[in-house]
Amino acid sequence: xxxxxxxxxxxxxxxxxxxxxxxxxxxxxxxxxxxxxxxxxxxxxxxxxxxxxxxxxxxxxxxxxxxxxxxxxxxxxxxxxxxxxxxxxxxxxxxxxxxxxxxxxxxxxxxxxxxxxxxxxxxxxxxxxxxxxxxxxxxxxxxxxxxxxxxxxxxxxxxxxxxxxxxxxxxxxxxxxxxxxxxxxxxxxxxxxxxxxxxxxxxxxxxxxxxxxxxxxxxxxxxxxxxxxxxxxxxxxxxxxxxxxxxxxxxxxxxxxxxxxxxxxxxxxxxxxxxxxxxxxxxxxxxxxxxx
Length: 292
Description:
Blueprint: H1 3-8, H2 12-28, H3 39-50, E1 56-62, H4 68-84, E2 88-93, H5 98-112, E3 117-119, E4 122-124, E5 135-140, H6 144-151, E6 185-190, H7 194-206, E7 210-214, H8 223-228, E8 233-236, H9 237-247, H10 253-291
Parallel strand pairs: 1-2, 1-6, 2-5, 6-7, 7-8
Antiparallel strand pairs: 3-4
């Protein structure tokens, strides 16, 4: 049996074993991989970076644990950028499984702000993030289209209290804040079809600046909205999150994941090429032997 016949009869479990080894080794050893930033990701970073202190950025966290690996790094990078620049963040969740992850992200990022760090050559002193002053978490309500439309009238209609049960009127950050007119932009991070609702019932009805962060598999379907100007930026999957981390000079799980993703894809492509070579050579040989 020559090498081509061996390739055709290779047990697929060897492929899975090699893939596991590549993933473990590339994750364990820290080495840089090139990150090329797309304009649609840079547009979101530049928009947030241009906002003056005190502005409110609304961040709906609309994903489930199944999309956490791709989308959680986006939340961490954007929210930390906002808080380092003394922007305020208005969170909400239109996915029933999202509130717990949103609460976890708020606590983790708040802890990160307690130490001094330097990003893009600028040193940011430590600060305490205060609930009700630096952020408000509205929580979850079902029926996203109705919730998005009603928030356009007044945030208090669907959310008279925040996620922790505090009336919105008693929170300092919400004084004078009625609806989307009082936020600088909405950045929807979503692994569900809630993005469609934000585009149709939110941006389409109220005209606020909207950007999105979505899973890699669903990114392509939203480029027409980017081309039409209905959304001003897109982050697609873990690669989009890694690009944002690179822009923010705040490396996290997404940039770590790029090492694994890059070399895992290269290994899979190599197996596909070898498998096709084995297939065509074996077929040609069988055809020649059949003629003889």
